[in-house]
Amino acid sequence: MPPHRHRPDLRRADPGNDRPDCPDRGGCAGPQLCLYPRHATGFQSGYRNLDDNLRPCHRPDPLLLPRSRSGRLPTDLAATGRSVRNSTAFPNLLRANILANLPDETRTSFIDQCLVRSHSSPVEILTQGVPAAGLFLVAHGRVEVSHCDEDGNSSLIYIAGAGEVLGEVEALTDNPCAASCTTLPNTTLLFCPTAQIIERIGSVQFFRNILSTMYERLMRDNRLLIINQFYTLDQRLCIYLGQLSSPKRPDVEISQAQLAGMIGCSRQAINRKLAKLQDEGLIGLGKGKIRVLDREGLERMGDVVR
């Protein structure tokens, strides 16, 4: 078997090793999360990428924190030197499906106990064939899910967005990851160690939410099988572009080769079809990016059945 193409360079994180470029190198005893990427030194235990993991620190970097549509930071986040809870920084996660129908106290407690990881550049957070140390909850941005076979052929399976969870099945079953997960630029995640997940499993509703997440994936995969088998290339392209984007996030950050792999056709065929959609004013093309301009028109062409 050839070496796995996505296996990262794993190094033991040293939580006590302060980086010289962090303004708080004198000591990080505060309850907030350090969002200076070069200072970050990993979680409290385990192998992690040294430059992208976060540990407790005094002040968050305002440039990496989520903002409102107006571009303003929430009051608590804009102030430096003040404790910021995860539930305050990422209130959208309180509505995540994995926390559905749980008491407000339980949801807030779960989110606040998670560890924040912020990535300005692509980083592999879960590696195919390697056990997961816990689950990841996407707070902001997107994560690519890909699979690599024994011959080294890699295929992009899905792109997860805010509120979606990754790695929970592998974390609970102690199985190696079925796929690799890589963040897109400017993505923020919450990490929940396996021990914390097991503590919550005692809640019947939380257990149901885990199973509901698996059920939704089964339904999505079943529908994609039907689409790939019975829909035309034009329809498949429009449907995938619709699924990979949203009204609030119209940009699909994906190469034409990756899109061709997902749909099951050649890159040349995708290039021609995208050019046609651009001429019709449905999309805009950029370097490594496709912007959906007319979502309703795209759905009509894809004949999407909701």
- Sheet/helix structural class: alpha+beta
Q: What letter string, H or E per element, gives the SSE order? A: EEHHHEEEEEEHEEHHHEHHEEH
| Largest sheet strand order | 3-10-5-8
- Number of domain modules: 2
Number of helical runs?
10
Would you count the extended β strands for me?
13
Shape descriptor: globular
> What number is the mean pLDDT?
78
Instruction: State the distance separating the first and last CA atoms.
Output: 42 Å
| Percent range of helical residues | 25-40%
How much of the sequence is in beta strands? 15-25%
Q: Which assembly state applies to the chains in this document?
A: single chain
Using the 3D structure, state the CATH architecture of the largest domain: Sandwich
**Poorly predicted sequence stretches spanning 5 or more consecutive residues:** 1-81
In CATH, the homologous superfamily of the largest domain goes by the name Jelly Rolls
**What is the alpha-carbon Rg in Å?**
20 Å
* CATH domain fold name of the largest domain: Jelly Rolls
CATH class of the largest domain: Mainly Beta
Describe the sheet with the most strands.
Answer: 4 strands, antiparallel
Protein name: Crp/Fnr family transcriptional regulator
Pfam families: cNMP_binding, HTH_Crp_2
Region (Disordered): 1-24
Keywords: DNA-binding, Transcription, Transcription regulation
